[in-house]
Design brief:
The chain is α/β, with parallel strands linked by helices. It has one domain: 3-Layer(aba) Sandwich (Rossmann fold). Helices cover 36% and strands 12% of the residues. Strands 2-1-3-4 form a four-stranded parallel β-sheet. Helix 1 links the parallel strand 1 and strand 2. Helix 1 packs across helix 4. The longest helix is centred in the last third of the chain and has 23 residues. It is globular. The N and C termini lie far apart (34 Å).
């Protein structure tokens, strides 16, 4: 069996078009619950240039350090000096259909679409609820991901598991 093992933390890039909410939250979640096993990054194809204040407020409310998050282009991670990526995961429908850069090292990829909380219009409570919902969906999927038996899965089995995570019903 050709297990997917590594002596360094697995590098994961979360992509979304604007890199202002979902991908930032995914980066934060994986950095926390995958600490030591994973290094998390996020980027976008058309970054907004700033992190959504509702996303930052939610992360701060859940005791994340928010000072280092920034909205950035995905091509930063296709440069020769970029981190070697093991996984590239899109978290919004727009990024899933876009032509991505060629990632050095051929990382595994998956799509875990989550509704865009930044697109919600309504009261402050409705907007906050949309961000909590997106956070919960991402957290559930990332929790399943970090608990996969990486050392005993071959590449094809791992790819199947990644795809299943993206299709799971969110509680």
């Amino acid at each position: 069996m050709n297990a997917v093992a590594s002596h360094r933390p697995h590098a994961v890039l979360f992509l979304c078009t604007g890199n202002s909410a979902r991908s930032i939250m995914a980066e934060a979640i994986l950095s926390r619950i995958g600490a030591g096993k994973f290094t998390a990054y996020s980027a976008g194809s058309q970054p907004k240039g700033e992190v959504n204040p509702h996303a930052l407020h939610l992360l701060e409310r859940f005791n994340y350090r928010i000072g280092n998050f920034r909205s950035k282009r995905w091509d930063e991670f296709a440069q020769p000096d970029a981190p070697q990526l093991d996984f590239v995961i899109t978290v919004c429908d727009n990024a899933a259909g876009e032509v991505c850069p060629i990632w050095p090292g051929q990382p595994m990829s998956a799509h875990w679409g989550v509704p865009d909380p930044a697109a919600v219009r309504g009261s402050d409570a409705e907007i906050a609820a949309a961000f909590v919902d997106a956070y919960g969906r991402l957290h559930n999927r990332i929790e399943v991901f970090v608990n996969l038996p990486f050392n005993s899965l071959d590449r094809l089995s791992l790819q199947n598991r990644l795809n299943q995570i993206g299709k799971q019903a969110d509680a």
